[in-house]
Design a protein that fits this description.
With 358 residues, the protein is mainly α. It has 22 helices and no strands. It is 68% helix and 0% strand. Helix 3 (47-58) packs antiparallel against helix 5, helix 11 runs parallel beside helix 14 (198-214) and helix 16 packs antiparallel against helix 17.
Length: 358
Amino acid sequence: MAKDGPNWDGLLKWSLSHADGTQPTRQLSEEERKWFMEAMQSQTVDVVKRMKKITLVMQTPQHVLVDHGVTSQDIEDLLDELQEHVESIDMANDLHAIGGLVPLLGFLKNSHANIRAKAADVVRTLVQNNHRSQELVMEANGLESLLSNFTSDADVHVQTQALGAISSLIRHNKAGVSAFKLADGYTGLRDALASDSVRFQRKALNLLQYLLQEDVSDQTIVTELGFSRVLIRLGSRDDAETREAALGVLLELASRKNDGSGCSSVELRQLLEERIEGISLMSQEDLETVKEERQLVDALWRVCYDEPSSLGEKGLLVLPGEDALPPDVASKLLEPLLRASAANGNATEKKEEPVKLL
């Protein structure tokens, strides 16, 4: 049967008869059969109705799906379609109302790695800039499943997709951030930075920088867990985006150490010297592609050693044709910190305004 494609007709027959656990199996009417086939095949169906049909499939036990010729690829295709639908905030919030959220989160524990990864990606879309969906996923214990996949799954693609979903779930979500920290999420980020996957590392760096910008006190946790050494290693990687992200986090950490201890590492100075030398040997074309890295290296040097780096003397900080003055990278990165400090200082005078979501 599987070789001829999924037996949607038979699957619907089973699903309808077992939807509430009480109705006996019955023959499909022609109207029911036509309705189901049109819903599964038409490209212009009603979105809510289509989501209901996808939910019906997600609620169906795995062995029944297999018996009706539904493959793991078929499920991935359905999840792809569902992801397109929940890009709309209204549709995303409707998914819970029609009973689709819980079975979607259930796919995070599916035996197929690709389905676990795809389910996490759908959750990422579902909760992105959507406070209501963030709340619903948290209430359904979705963060726990995502954290498990992020820290423990044997497939790095599953881990990466889970981290992407976590990042969207906890952004501008204080309850989510607190739960992430309580679940030792920072240790998971440190382990992700030590992985061999560049994409996994980038996602971890992005979330790490966001968390540090949101809460200055997290610097203590990051320092105690030994992030600096890992970040210094990443600052010399071949991948330019990884280098820039690592240098950005190092600048966050160094700038917040008023006693200068954030720059005391011999390894950090060696990294900066190596990056200056590496930049000096680049072609004009390559120099143009690492503009932010040049600025980050100089900003770190200024913060740590209270003097400009040699990039300026060599004419490598501002290239011909670029703006006369490079952007103040340090101020840009520290702006969230300054805002947070000011807000904390005035906490007794004025309650902080809630973050506005899109």
